[in-house]
């Protein structure tokens, strides 16, 4: 036969190498603690990330809205402050204008005493003007033009203002006097009306007092008549009671008067009237003593019977107590025997357990595990 060189089939080796590489990649992926995702809920983590982003976005929107609100409030506040400053400036300008027009220094009573006004202008300087320098000049060129006309116009304006004030004051005085006159007339009318009302009220009071006096007189007469009739009725009643007491059986002490016959009663005998009773008869007393003696003997007999019954109950309780003590003693002995038997059983269990532990530690578990035994775990991905 001819020798033929056939190609070697290494597909099995390639498959083994492929499986080994896949196993190595799988182990690297599984045992890598930084990239391992097994046992994690990726959907829940992604949901948490989305929720955190939404929460942060909402917080940012809220912060931006608050910033806009703060800016708006600051602008409103600045606008209010600016309006307040403008209002104050306008008030200051009005005040300065009012003072310049209504409160001038030359319009005061002591205007002529000011140094810079009439008194100062009328002073004469003993030094000649030719010897004075520029710093000693009192009036410069161009000053005081139209000053007299201005002063005259101001005086006329002041006079008109004073005249208007005087007329306004006179008008107010007339109105005040008219009001006082009207008020006085009204007070007079009120006084007259009050006097008339007082007279009418006094008349009504007088008529009321007369009617009240008449009513009181009638009431007094009626009360006197009632008292007289009541006194006569009371006296007649007292006389009838005295007559009844004199003619009744109370003063005669009749024993039959203290008894009355009752029909249909519980006993059927006569019943005693307490307000007329004068004591019991000897027959009744003897019957009461006899009944009391019978009750005493009956009570003595009942006490003897009660004493005998108590003695019988005491004897019965003593017998029962003895029987209970005997049963308790037997129960204690039985319990003691059971405890002794249980102690013996527990000692036997303890001996068996010690023997089993000695068998486990000295006979069965004698081969100790080495380090190679622990390295065989978690060495494969399967």
TrEMBL record:
Coiled coil regions, renumbered to chain: 81-108, 148-182, 315-362
Family: Belongs to the RIB43A family.
Keywords from the named record: Cell projection, Cilium, Coiled coil, Cytoplasm, Cytoskeleton, Flagellum
Pfam families: RIB43A
Subcellular location: Cytoplasm, Cytoskeleton, Flagellum axoneme
Record's subunit section: Microtubule inner protein component of sperm flagellar doublet microtubules.
Name of the protein this chain belongs to: RIB43A-like with coiled-coils protein 1
Keyword check for Protease: no
Transmembrane intervals: none
Signal peptide: none
Organism: Salmo trutta
């Amino acid at each position: 036969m001819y020798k033929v060189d056939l190609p070697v089939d290494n597909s099995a080796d390639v498959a083994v190498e492929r499986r080994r590489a896949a196993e190595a990649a799988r182990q690297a992926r599984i045992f890598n603690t930084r990239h391992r995702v097994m046992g994690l809920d990726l959907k829940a983590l992604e949901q948490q990330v989305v929720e955190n982003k939404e929460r942060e976005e909402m917080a940012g929107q809220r912060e931006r809205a608050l910033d806009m609100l703060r800016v708006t409030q600051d602008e409103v506040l600045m606008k209010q402050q600016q309006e307040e400053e403008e209002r104050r400036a306008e008030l200051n300008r009005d005040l300065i204008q009012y003072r310049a027009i209504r409160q001038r220094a030359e319009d005061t009573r002591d205007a002529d005493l000011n140094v810079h006004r009439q008194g100062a202008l009328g002073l004469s300087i003993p030094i000649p003007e030719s010897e004075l320098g520029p710093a000693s000049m009192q009036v410069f060129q161009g000053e005081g033009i139209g000053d007299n006309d201005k002063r005259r116009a101001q005086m006329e304006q002041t006079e008109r203002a004073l005249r208007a004030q005087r007329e306004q004051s006179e008008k107010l005085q007339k109105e005040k006097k008219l009001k006082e006159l009207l008020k006085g007339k009204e007070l007079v009318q009120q006084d007259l009306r009050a006097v008339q009302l007082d007279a009418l009220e006094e008349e009504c009071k007088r008529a009321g007092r007369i009617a009240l006096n008449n009513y009181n007189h009638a009431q007094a007469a009626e009360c006197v008549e009632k008292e007289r009739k009541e006194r006569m009725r009371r006296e007649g009643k007292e006389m009838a009671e005295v007559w009844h007491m004199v003619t009744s059986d109370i003063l005669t002490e009749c024993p039959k008067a203290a008894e009355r016959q009752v029909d249909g009663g519980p006993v059927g005998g006569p019943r005693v009237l307490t307000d007329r009773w004068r004591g019991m008869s000897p027959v009744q007393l003897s019957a009461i003593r006899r009944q009391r003696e019978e009750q005493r003997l009956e009570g003595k007999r009942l006490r003897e019977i009660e004493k005998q019954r108590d003695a019988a109950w005491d004897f019965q309780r003593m017998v029962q107590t003895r029987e209970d003590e005997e049963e308790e003693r037997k129960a204690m002995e039985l319990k003691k025997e059971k405890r002794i038997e249980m102690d013996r059983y527990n000692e036997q269990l303890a001996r068996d357990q010690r023997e089993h532990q000695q068998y486990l530690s000295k006979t069965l578990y004698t081969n100790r595990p080495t380090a190679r035994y622990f390295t065989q775990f978690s060495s494969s991905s399967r």
